[in-house]
Specification:
This protein is mainly β. The protein has two helices and 33 strands. The protein is 4% helix and 38% strand.
Length: 434
């Protein structure tokens, strides 16, 4: 076959005959040639494939028909009620393309449906939350994504998916007798249905936990939109939660960021139960972190953020962590962390959202999103700022929203802040350039 291909190419170059068809003549015929990035059978722009058969990408400096991108760094997504929590980057409508949800406590969430190329179409979700997080999963046994967040008080709000990103009215799910702090979903009992994991604490408020009890509360899904009775497990004034297989036994474990200066792991038994909290004291109170194998030893590590900047916590594979390196951000506080392979070397890297210290400093705070590339063996590279903003960055998340195989960054500015007016009450995309 290769010999015939070589002969055919040689004849094309030297033998008499009709001239080969030019790319411009074949673009739009529905047959993708090697020199074409795309060919969707027309020359109509605005549908993901330009009239010259190149892919429409948000952030490439070309404003295409219907493209919401306003700058070379990506789209600015309006949020009428601002944003005061981590953005949620997930595929809500199960079309294989990541969407973005802007979250503000007690306000309707803003859903931006992604087209897979970095462009988005906005809509308002009739979904409100009373805590710092929301989650998407397959909870009720069908193939449609469901949405879960917190109601006021001690309940979860279960929004059953009806297809294409639409959700039925919220169903309250009692989660215990403590105020909601954070929520996540995971299949804790291996029955192919995601279960609810709810972090709550007695006398909890938006500012954190008060004195009293604190628990991780679990409601196992029955697979039909109903849930088994609440199971409560003691925790340590937890205000943030993440799910990962910390001990490598195939069962999801619960990791909490605690108001007191430590992180905790409640190991899952694969049947819906959790073990006692395994506590790792840390120098500062870590309320948010990213979980991934940053040092390449096959065990989950944590990149935790605080007033000290960011600290890498090495996991021992049994639920304990040890601080291995601290990455200070002079004059600034780390507020959020995400993991992703930003340099395409097969190792997860860390991004940190940070802001200058000093309340009410407005535009003078400064800050942004800083990337720390993983070099394996408990080492991260020096931080490189992916973006800087006059008023800094509190909340950010990562995900490949433009389909180029490299994570992009979604960042937000909290409502009511005195920051730069161009970024007040919006989410902004910083698109990768691999």
């Amino acid at each position: 076959m290769r010999r015939w291909l070589a002969l055919a190419l040689a004849c094309t170059a030297s033998c008499p005959g009709p001239a080969p068809q030019h790319l411009a003549d074949s673009c739009g015929d529905g047959e993708k040639l090697p020199a074409e990035e795309c060919d969707d059978g027309n020359r109509v722009p605005g549908d993901g494939c330009r009239a010259n058969c190149t892919v429409e990408r948000c952030g490439d400096g070309i404003v295409d028909v219907g493209e919401p991108c306003l700058s070379e760094t990506g789209a600015i997504l309006a949020l009428p009620d601002g944003i005061d929590q981590l953005p949620l980057v997930a595929d809500l409508d199960a079309d294989g393309k990541l969407d973005i949800v802007g979250i503000t406590v007690a306000k309707p969430m803003q859903w931006y449906r992604g087209n897979g190329l970095g462009g988005f179409t906005g809509a308002t979700l009739a979904v409100k939350t009373a805590c710092s997080s929301a989650a998407v999963g397959l909870v009720d046994g069908d193939a449609t994504r469901d949405f879960v967040t917190c109601l006021d008080g001690d309940s979860a709000a279960f929004y059953r998916g009806t297809g294409m990103g639409a959700f039925a009215a919220a169903v309250g799910v009692a989660m215990g007798n403590e105020a909601a702090m954070a929520i996540a979903v995971a299949d804790l009992d291996h029955d192919q249905h995601d279960d609810l994991v709810f972090v709550g604490c007695d006398s909890g408020t938006g500012a954190g936990c008060g004195a009293g009890t604190s628990h991780v509360n679990v409601r196992l899904s029955n697979g039909d939109g109903t849930f088994a009775a609440t199971r409560s497990f003691d925790s340590q004034k937890s205000v943030f939660v993440a799910i990962a297989d910390v001990d490598g036994d195939g069962a999801p474990d619960v990791i909490t960021g605690d108001q007191d200066p430590h992180v905790s792991v409640l190991r899952g038994d694969g049947k819906g139960g959790l073990g006692p909290a395994i506590v790792t004291p840390v120098p500062f109170g870590y309320t948010r972190f990213a979980a991934a194998d940053f040092d390449g030893d096959g065990r989950i590590d944590l990149a935790a953020v605080s007033a000290a900047g960011m600290q890498l916590l090495h996991g021992d594979g049994k639920g304990k962590f040890a601080a291995t390196a601290t990455f200070p951000i002079p004059g600034a506080t780390g507020y959020s962390a995400s993991a992703g392979d930003f340099d395409n070397d097969g190792r997860p890297d860390v991004t940190v959202g940070f802001r200058g210290n000093g309340g009410g400093c407005g535009k003078q705070c400064g800050g942004g999103v800083r990337l720390y590339a993983s070099h394996g063996q408990t080492r991260l590279g020096d931080g490189v700022d992916l973006v800087t903003l006059p008023d800094g960055v509190l909340w950010h998340a990562a995900g490949d929203v433009n389909g180029d195989g490299t994570p992009d960054v979604v960042l937000g500015d909290p409502v009511g802040d005195t920051g730069h007016p161009d970024f007040h009450g919006v989410m902004r995309l910083v698109l990768s350039n691999p």
